[in-house]
Amino acid sequence: MKLACCLAFVLAVPLLAQTDRALGAVTSVDPGGRRVTLKTDAGAAVIVTAQPNANFRRVAPGETDLQKAAVITLNDISVGDRVLARGRAGANSNEITAALIVVMSQGDIAQKQAADRADWDRRGVVGLVTMAGAGQIVINVRTSGNVTPVAITLAPNAKVRRYAPDSIRFADARPSALGEIKTGDQVRARGNRTEDGSKMTAEEVVSGSFRTIAGVILSLDAQQNEVRINDLDTKKALVVKVSADSSLRKLSPQVAQAIAQRVRGNGENGASPGGAARGGDLQPMLESSPSMTLADLKVGDAIVVSGTVGAVPERVTAITLLGGVEPILRRPGTQEMSLGSWILDIDNP
Q1: DSSP alpha helices (H): ranges in the chain?
Q2: Which CATH number is associated with domain 2-104?
Q3: N or C terminus of the chain with fewer C-beta within 10 Å?
Q4: Is the whole model's pTM more than 0.90, yes or no?
């Protein structure tokens, strides 16, 4: 969510003759030295020194007109704010002397994120693409065990983005078009639906080639942050890569049983917690489960993974990895486990 807010933030700043820039979150402020230190989205530290005649501006998240920015001073910048600095590079590669410093306050970002989440929850849908075309796509949306096809067309000036292969970060998503979406992709869209819910005019669409996989762990490599599993559906081995952005959760027996009962109560071995969360409470149950590490897993454990499909089909990068899922996967009255049609949701952009 944070990065989506900053796309317009970057575009709001006009190009200067000096084209060096730095963008990141403020980690420290030194008013006496007229310096702020930023941590970029790539994790690098950059020291920004304000020129004597530097301009300081504060913009609201999503604002694209710098003329509407408020004039501020260096003393108005706080740790946690997002800053875009433009000027000239210093003697070292991690330094910049800035003529213009544009700020989005941490509080404004938090309010925008909360408002966006609420709007995605209220007007958003997520599902798998069943029909793809240059002017319209159709996705299957699951809510409380029911499957509803929704035809999606674009509103004027709609934003369409696509996740990059082998990346789960929205920062790596690139501008795209409806025609790039393929059958089988996972799509999240936000917009206005018709009264019967069968059609949506989308203002924002995010797509990607994702897989939700259930498997039994064959081996663990903590140094490489990789898990090798046997896919329950294909019966083939594949490697799951865990990155710093991956979310690892351990379901408690109580939560796993509650989800299993919900799934079986819907009359199928599998449901979409992402879709159901928009009309129920499965997603909050997953998100409230405690975090874990690879060290909490062992060979023979069952896991469910939502991940991006990269260049190599036998490898996925985990968005979400869930442990403690045996009660959900096991078919009643047997020891056999299957994923069914359970789809873990992709993250909000």
Answers
A1: 2-11, 106-123, 253-265, 273-277, 282-287, 326-329
A2: 2.40.50.320
A3: N
A4: no
